[in-house]
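One such given next:
>
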Amino acid sequence: MKIAPSVLAADLSRLADEVASVERSADLLHLDIMDGHFVPNLTFGVPVITALRSCTELPFDCHLMVTNPVEYLPSLAEAGADVVTLHLEAVPDPTEAAVLARRLGLRFGVVISPPTPWEAVAPWVETCDTVLVMSVHPGFGGQEFMPEVLAKVEALRKLVDSNGLSTDIQIDGGITTATARAARDAGANVFVSGTGIFGRPDRSQAIEELRAVIGEQP
């Protein structure tokens, strides 16, 4: 079980301090890269990730909500990314992207948005370190959790376990202490939380409470 605070919900005017507030209690740092084209929002890019790399030892989990994600991979690897996840809606056949990511020393994953069925990603699960199921529509933080996506998490967990794979099942969107247990019960083992962590004054306590809900002691 891993918890990945999403920087999208942090105070971007004091980003280094915000990252420091989760340094000792988080497992990953989730970085949403949006281009204003694939999704109707624009966030940050490689220069910010490069700057953050000197501020923390947390692994960087980079979620690419962009039209041309493969083009970002070399610069993300150079910036210090550890994991990259690409939307299947942007790259319907991620085979070459996975090969390039691994050549660059990156862990690789595929993301599916709420309208995309789990069957669409099934052919690529064996090539993935992570499959990310969006439990909100991508593009903006602070949305409400969509419980109907849990059936996809359940199906993917069965697929992963029945094939003896070590692929992580990650869930992102509306993850709080009120929703994390249902996501865990469905089979998720990596939990991305933005406002559920950065919206709290004590981020370490927020993460500990999430761990308690998913059945893992801090």
Observations:
- The first helix runs from residue 15 to 20.
